[in-house]
Amino acid sequence: MNPRWTMASSVAGAVVVALDGTVLTVAQPRLQQELGASLAEVQWTSTAYLVAVASLLVFAGRLGDRYGQHRVFALGMLGFGAASAGIGVAPGVGWVIGLRALQGVFGALLQPATLGMLRAAFPADRLTRPLAVRTAAIGLAAAAGPLVGGALVTALGWRAVFFVNVLPSLVFGLPALLRKGRPPAGSRTPLDVPGAVLVAVTLACLVHSLTTRPFSGSGLAVAAVTTAVLVRHERRTAGPLLPPSVIGSRAIAAALGVLLTVSAALFGALFVATYVLQRRLGLDPLHSALRGLPLAVLMVASAALCPALLRRLGVRAAITAATALLVLGVLVLSEAGSAPVFGCAFALLGAGFGTVMVAATQVIVRRAEVAVAGVAGGLQQTALNIGPAVGVATASALMGTGTGPALLTLAAVAAVGLLLARALPGTDAQEAPSGAGGVVSITPTADERVHGGAAARR
User: Fold this and answer.
1) Fewer Cβ neighbours under 10 Å: the N or C end of the chain?
2) Rounded distance, CA 232 to CA 352, Å?
3) Which Pfam families match (predicted)?
4) Mean pLDDT on 208-229
5) 3-state SS string for the chain
């Protein structure tokens, strides 16, 4: 499969997942009405998916490294489409919840593979552009989701939003399934099943605790225990699920931390903003979504401009500046009361987040060899799933004290990203330890190369 088709497939997979999440929110009220579901059952149509996808992302990335990113992408894409079609004909809310969990399993297979494929198809020094295209497409999907979902639900009913996934799943999943190629770079990497189980339990308990109401302290306690057991296991096993050179890389850890903090701040702030726009200002969901369009527009624009920004400023300066914009956006949002101020706040949030997404993802994917690109992609996706859950949980807990304190706390969370950015590489030469095709440079430094598996191949 050629690089252009690989990039198109990666973008399609990312867009299908992003669009699915946004249109579901619009469809849930009608779903509840037609299926006679309770509010708790409707919440589980989201929670079941989130728990499944978050708990399996890292192991799914390892499967891609071992069996081939295109093969796992095909399975994820086709399975996601099949589960979506099943939800579209589900006779009751119980079926919807179960199929949403299954959809999360296939989504977990799909998401790391969209990044792993890019790492395998493009030389390390040419990854910025496809990552920028992928991020811009996600921004467009986020903007279009509420509008597309609203139109489909109004005209055809809630089931129509799930059938949207079927055609792209077939168009991009079948060619990837039929692709033949040489064994992947990580084909000899052992599968750490005990580690995968521990990661899954830890993340499932964490996400469940953060996304359910009332808040589950027992889930966090179990997550803490399994985390301790996981650390002990990973240090002792011969073939760890989390290669030490990936999780031990200072730059990768910093990039993951930045993604987690800024996504927490962004989605927490959007949760508060939605409450203000719809409850305090009395806007309907459509007009509320239209107020947020500057976020999507600036996210797309900043993603497109990010490659040039990285060449001019370097990774550390670009991410620091973008994170500062996001912090400023949250602070402006805390004082917003009129349409122009809301527009300015959303524009700052979009510009900051779009840049951070491209730049931080580039650090994570570029510094991983092809043999462990799936695990790196799984960690990136995990950060982007855990971060919003943390942000919304924080906002929900503080809303009783007022929207101002909630947003100021979220701004402080985003500001942590400014501290983490100091550990990022400063120049492009420092950021790109690998040459074309994943072949390492002749004189890499100790932290410039991620090993964790078989040598990368051309």
Assistant:
1) C
2) 37
3) MFS_1
4) 82
5) CCHHHHHHHHHHHHHHHHHHHHHHHHHHHHHHHHHCCCHHHHHHHHHHHHHHHHHHHHHHHHHHHHHCHHHHHHHHHHHHHHHHHHHHCCCCHHHHHHHHHHHHHHHHHHHHHHHHHHHHHCCHHHCHHHHHHHHHHHHHHHHHHHHHHHHHHHHHCCCHHHHCCHHHHHHHHHHHHHCCCCCCCCCCCCCCHHHHHHHHHHHHHHHHHHHCCCCCHHHHHHHHHHHHHHHHHHHHCCCCCCCHHHHCCHHHHHHHHHHHHHHHHHHHHHHHHHHHHHHHCCCCHHHHHHHCHHHHHHHHHHHHHHHHHHHHHCHHHHHHHHHHHHHHHHHHHHCCCCHHHHHHHHHHHHHHHHHHHHHHHHHHHHCECHHHHHHHHHHHHHHHHHHHHHHHHHHHHHHHHCHHHHHHHHHHHHHHHHHHHHHCCCCHHHHCCECHHHCECCCCCCCCCECCCCCCCC
User: Which range scores top for mean pLDDT: 140-149, 343-352, 395-404, 446-455?
Assistant: 343-352
Instruction: Give the separation between CA 204 and CA 218, rounded to whole angstroms.
Output: 12
CA–CA separation, 24 and 79 (whole Å):
18
Interatomic CA distance for residues 75 and 69, integer angstroms: 10
Predicted confidence (pLDDT) per residue in 261-291, tens digit: 999 999 888 888 877 887 777 776 667 777 8
Look-up of token digits 């992302």: 57
Residue with tokens 């499932």: 204
Orientation angle between helical segments 339-366 and 128-156, nearest 10 degrees: 130
pTM: 0.81
* CATH fourth-level superfamily of 1-179: MFS general substrate transporter like domains (1.20.1250.20)
CA angle 285, 273, 412 (to 5 degrees): 160
Spacing of C-alpha 345 from chain mean position: 22
Rounded CA separation 229/237 (Å): 12
| CA 52 and chain centroid, separation | 14
The domain defined by 243-458 folds into Growth Hormone; Chain: A; (1.20.1250)
Closest CA to 327 of 447, 255, 416: 416
With beta carbons less than 8 A apart as the criterion, state whether 97 and 346 touch. Answer: no
CB neighbour list of residue 265: distance below 8 Å, 6 or more residues apart: 326, 327, 330, 391, 410, 411, 413, 414, 417
381, two tokens = 């996706």
